[in-house]
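cron nightly-structures :: item 1 of 1
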Amino acid sequence: RELKIKSLTDIGNVYNIQGQTAEALQHYLSALDMAEKYELRNLVVDVYANIGQIYLTMENFQQVEVYFTRMKDLCTELNDSLSMAYAFDGLVELHLHNGELEKALECAEAANRIVATHPDAVPSEKLTGLLSLAAVWFEGYHNDEKALMYAEPALKYAEECRQPLFMAHALCQISSIYLSRKDYKAAEQAALRALDADSSSFYITTVLHENISKANIMMGNKAKAIAYFDRHKNWLTIFSNKNYQSALTEMEVKYENRKKELQIETQKTIISRQNLRHIALLAGIAVFALLLVLVERLRRLQSKRNRELAQMNATKDKFFSLISHDLKNPAIAQRN
């Protein structure tokens, strides 16, 4: 069971990296159904995190709040502080979107505090907490210096992990910060390093191409800017097509699910009607049987009454016969 749930989650992760959000979400939800069915609560926590991230990608912030809040509550019950950090990271994006900067900073600091002090925290978890803080200071407060102060240590943890995707993510953040600081050469270098590290994520790759194009425009490198701008458009087209296909697939999934629900409801209605018919038939049989019992009882009562009347008539006849005999003898004697 656990292996199957983890396999479904891993497949969802692959689809997620490729930008196929509908397919990823479908696998995550299947994993969640199994984990909840067999009450594997630790796995439920992991799947909540993945589903929350998918809804972040889809910008469905209502569902983001639902799943990361559920994750946070379950982590509290399980006393799993390390997973709690992931829940806080997810809520950071929600609060940034809602413009709730203080709440976003509070969640980012809580996440970073957990992973910085937890004895079992690995570098990938530590860099996530730092990137959340960098995002709040960069996207929320527009403080490039503070953002860079957290993004650069995050890159060191990414290098320790030796995970190319983590390095690309950290370098993408650093590239955007340098671009905001108008340090265009550093922004381009960070973006190129990120592309060399990993280009599997559609979202990160499109941002990196855009950053390189903007940096070269500002540096006067028109030919290079146009080349990367064309690549940026191509990546956007691919990403948009992926999102379109994902959205279409998601709609198809929802349609099929709704179709199945309607079929189930129809079956339930048919079964309910059949049950009502059976109940009505049984009730009719019961009433008919009751009527038969009553008729039989009345017949027996009538038969008993007839026997009693016949017995009374016989008694009466015998009585009159005796009276007649008793009257006849004195009369004959008187005559004689």
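cron nightly-structures :: done
The mean pLDDT is 84.
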